[in-house]
Amino acid sequence: MARLKIEDLQRIKEEHKAASTLREGGFRAKITVHMGTCGLAAGARNIMSALLDEIEKSGVTDVIATTSGCAGLCSREPMATIEIINNPPVKYGSLTEDKIRRIFKEHIIGGNVIEEYALVIGSETAY
User: How far apart are the C-alpha atoms of 96 and 102, rounded to whole Å?
Assistant: First the structure.
């Protein structure tokens, strides 16, 4: 058997990553920014823009950002729900651009829920 080169290992890693991503539905994490009328009035567009900026800067390819309507807690808008495979979902409220950037870095990338921003943990799931 021929010796493996660094390029061979990188190719194997990318093939494995692609296969596991497909098997898991195409993404590891889903971020839903609630953009009903109340969310939009509270600044949800700015939250989504900041989130998309963080995703682009990080270069991650296994995270999806999506939108939904009102989550029913208008006084806590803007809000976002974070769903990571094999973890309970987390709904964050009263968001700012700085908060969503921190949530992205610490929760989505780092795996640590920011409890001080969380409204509820484990109320819903897409998996």
Answer: 10
List, for residues 74-96, the tens digit of each pLDDT value: 999 999 999 998 889 999 999 99
| Residue ranges per structural domain of the chain | 27-121
Is pLDDT of 18 > 70?
no
- Which of 97, 91, 76, 75 is CA-nearest to residue 125? 91
Amino acid (one-letter) located at 58: S
Give the separation between CA 112 and CA 16, rounded to whole angstroms.
25
What superfamily does domain 27-121 belong to in CATH? Glutaredoxin (3.40.30.10)
CA distance linking residue 78 with residue 62, whole number of Å? 24
How confident is the prediction for the chain on average, in pLDDT? 86
12 by Cβ neighbours in 10 Å (0-12 / 13-18 / 19+) ranks as: exposed
Q: What is the mean pLDDT of residues 107-114?
A: 96
The CA distance from 116 to 92, in Å, is: 9
Q: Structure pTM?
A: 0.76
Pairing of strands 80-84, 63-68: unpaired
